[in-house]
Amino acid sequence: MVVDGALQSCGIGTILIQAAEQRIRARGLHRAELGVEECNPRARALYERLGYVAYGREPASWDEEAPDGTITRYETVCTLMRKELP
To answer: Which end of the chain has fewer CB atoms within 10 angstroms, the N or the C?
Structure first.
C-alpha cells in the first residue's frame, strides 16, 4: 500500500488499513499481518499507532517497472508486524 506523498497525513492510510482489517474479519479471521520496509519508519509508526506489533524481519524483493518500461528487481528488508483483531 502506498499513499501519494502529497496526500500523506490526511488519514488515508488509516482508512485503508481499517478497511483491510474489516475484510479480514469478514472472512472469519482474527489476525492481520503485514511487512513494512525497514527504511520506512513513518509507515511503521502508523502501523504501531494502529496496534500492530513487530515480530520479526525478512528479506523481500519484487519487480518494478520504470516509466520507460524497463523492469528492475528491487530488494529490501521488511519488519513483519501483526495485530490481533477483535
So the answer is: C
